[in-house]
Design goal:
Radius of gyration: 22 Å
Shape: globular
Largest sheet: none
Number of domains: 1
Helix content: over 70%
Structural class: mainly alpha
Order of helices and strands: HHHHHHHHHHHHHHHHHHHHHH
Amino acid sequence: MDETNTISNKSVKPNYKALAPLAVFLLSYLAVSIIAGDFYKMPITVAFLLASAVGIAMIKGGNIQHKTEVFCQGAANANVLFMVLIFIMAGAFAQTTKDMGAVDATVNLTLSLLPPALLAPGLFLAACFVSVSVGTSVGTIVALVPVAAGIAAKTGLNPALMTAVIVSGAMFGDNLSFISDTTIAATRTQGCKMSDKFKTNFLIVLPFAVLTAVLYYFSASSSQIPYQLQDVQWLKVLPYVIVLGAAVSGLNVMLVLAGGTVLAGLTGLATSSFSLWGWTQAMGKGIVGMGELIIVTLLAGGMLETIRINGGMAWIIEKLTKNIKSRKAAELSIAALVSFANLCTANNTIALLMSGPIAKDIAHNFKIPASRSASILDIFSCFVQGLIPYGAQLLMAAALASLTPVAIMKYLYYPLLLGLGTLVAIWLGYPQKIRVPFKKKKEEAAAN
């Protein structure tokens, strides 16, 4: 077996110089974007390519062929390739359901259930449901912000408030959805089941989602909002409901996405939403749309391997854990790590890919369950992503509502409560371990 596959962070001498590729990435992506006045001026793929080249050059010993092979081993890591496969399947599913009309049908369904006095909290809950179903915060924002902005224009409600309602709900699903790239990245880097992470994550965020709905109710309680309902196309909602139910039940994510894509396609054919070729084109478009994320995932995996081999991750872990005396402090260090990465990249998925391997080692050293470390990673990446004015979510929402990101930020109750509340949850050790079934307890007692 190749020696590079057996080296662990513990056997590599800590070396801060190995972090140079990360510094190159931050300078080429963050610094250049700030100087240019456009955070998306520098393509993230180019920034990762430059950083990867530096990482390959810094590998000690061997020729360029050997160094490139080390990089490729990181890019071809099983977790990285599994994420790539899921991204491909998620892209096909998301675009198929969108072209089939499931998003519009889901919006109409949720709006039909809302009494006027509960419009703001109801839209928040609708955004939560849609984002959990479709697995993308940006997609949810694109679908629902125009609705929220239109209602605000007709009723006199604060458009910034109504836009923030949708962004908050979108970040709820970005954090929890089984087909969200953040959930996929968090669970795969920590090595836990999505269903286990969902249970732990949901127990943490549920109180803050409820409190957010209450705050939005009082923020918009003085208005009675009349709106015209559209007929609900119940059949088109079915794929979302089935996919969500199958995912929550613990079915393999690949089977969930494959089955969901087939069901959405058949529904689209049955309702004449598209032809057979239209369905194949939708799947192809969705897969191609995941291209940049797939490329970045591969480059990030290879770059992180070069940093690990040269001792960079060992150095970070050593510094992060040097003064840690408890599990709580270790969990806070994981939160700080992913938060810092997200501030620098303005992309919560990339932040998770960068910080996930380090967080896994910290979790292992301090006996933190994988489901909890995955939850902390995902929560704090979404907390930061939901609040930064240069993130894709706020930029998209502001453009659709003809607002500035800063105007929306003060009404983003959920991301703020999510971050602050989870810090309290870490301090209190909440939630406790999920109870084991009675039968299992009885067997353990008999064995003792």
